[in-house]
Amino acid sequence: MESLSNRKKVVSDKKMTFVESLYLPAIFSGMSKSFKHMFNKPATVRYPEQEREFAPVYRGMHVLKRDEQGRENCTACGLCAVACPAEAITMKAAERQPGEEHLYREEKYAETYEINMLRCIFCGLCEEACPKEAVFLTDRIVPTNFERQPFVYGKDKLVEPVDQRVDITNRQHTGKRGNK
Ligand code: SF4
Ligand code: SF4
């Protein structure tokens, strides 16, 4: 009887030839394909001994920058948090007290500043929104963890150490925030 869809296939039950029944041609054909791949350039690298070079525009873990005198640039204005599409940034502002001028550049500073790295999509909009050149994305990778809580990064992980500055020259390209 004719099928309605006409997609019916007639399966051949043709007997194998003597050579086919030895399976040798099929085995050699498969082995030759494997052998050919032995001379191709491998697509993988031997990480961590070998590392891939990142693209100059790669966006990784954030840094909160200090100025030349070691003072924190961030003034806790909240623009980065407003710009963040993932709502990954939270902060609490505080007023700079007399005698703290060497710690904070502006009269207001971030008492706490947190980025949830599990929410972050590394879009870089916080960096674009910051009027104080305080937050930048770097080429550093966010380390893995088995727990969720350690992915909430506070100032202890985000503010750059005074004696170990994080290079962000790649991020300060021309045309950004009118730096032409
Ligand atoms: S990189 Fe994007 S998602 Fe991540 S904190 Fe900044 S604005 Fe939010
Ligand atoms: S990082 Fe920049 S945008 Fe975000 S609160 Fe600090 S000064 Fe404002």
TrEMBL record:
Task: List cofactor names only.
Answer: [4Fe-4S] cluster
Where is this protein localized, as stated in its record?
A: Cell membrane
**Where does this protein hold [4Fe-4S] cluster 1?**
74, 77, 80, 130
Q: Which UniProt keywords apply?
A: 4Fe-4S, Cell membrane, Iron, Iron-sulfur, Membrane, Metal-binding, NAD, Quinone, Repeat, Translocase, Ubiquinone
Listed under catalytic activity are: a quinone + NADH + 5 H(+)(in) = a quinol + NAD(+) + 4 H(+)(out)
Record's keyword annotation contains Iron-sulfur:
yes
Q: What class of enzyme is it?
A: translocase
Do you know which Pfam families this protein is assigned to?
Fer4_7
Q: Which domain of life is it from?
A: Bacteria
- A cellular component term (GO) from this record? plasma membrane
Where are the membrane-spanning stretches? none
Query: Which NCBIfam families does the protein's record reference?
Result: NuoI
Share what the entry says about its subunit structure, partners included: NDH-1 is composed of 14 different subunits. Subunits NuoA, H, J, K, L, M, N constitute the membrane sector of the complex.
Family statement: Belongs to the complex I 23 kDa subunit family.
- Functional note: NDH-1 shuttles electrons from NADH, via FMN and iron-sulfur (Fe-S) centers, to quinones in the respiratory chain. The immediate electron acceptor for the enzyme in this species is believed to be ubiquinone. Couples the redox reaction to proton translocation (for every two electrons transferred, four hydrogen ions are translocated across the cytoplasmic membrane), and thus conserves the redox energy in a proton gradient.
Question: What name goes with this protein?
Answer: NADH-quinone oxidoreductase subunit I
State the species of origin. Answer: Taishania pollutisoli
